[in-house]
Amino acid sequence: MKKLQVLHLLTNHLSGQIPTSLGNLSFFSYVLLQDNKLEGTIPSTLDMDKSISLNMAQNSLVGPITSEVEDRRHSGWP
């Protein structure tokens, strides 16, 4: 599954960590993981240059936000 465009998994009661294999996708437009029970850190394998929109709000994620995510947040990225 290298060309997934939209990963829409919001409000699915998902738990556990975000898999590092998500970063193996060659391109994705939208990753919607909000309102689940995900925990742990945002995988460093997640390449923000390959996505348009990322929403992981309303989970229990911890740890630092990668510089790529922080740069997008301050640039008005959706």
How does this model look, in words?
This protein has 78 residues and is of the alpha/beta class. Helices cover 10% and strands 22% of the residues. It contains 1 helix and 6 strands; from the N terminus they run ββββββα. It has a 3-stranded parallel beta sheet with strand order 1-3-5, with no helix packed on it. The longest helix has 8 residues, at 67-74. It starts with 5 loop residues before the first strand and ends with a helix.
Number of strands: 6
Query: Roughly what is the average pLDDT, rounded to an integer?
Result: 79
Low-confidence segments, given as residue ranges, are none
Q: Report how far the terminal alpha carbons are from each other.
A: 24 Å
Name the helicity range.
Answer: 10-25%
Structural class by sheet pairing and helices = alpha/beta
The proportion of strand residues reads 15-25%
Shape descriptor: globular
Helical stretch count? Answer: 1
As a whole number of angstroms, the C-alpha radius of gyration is 12 Å
Task: Describe the main β-sheet briefly.
Answer: 3 strands, parallel
Listing every helix as H and every strand as E from the N terminus to the C terminus, the arrangement reads EEEEEEH
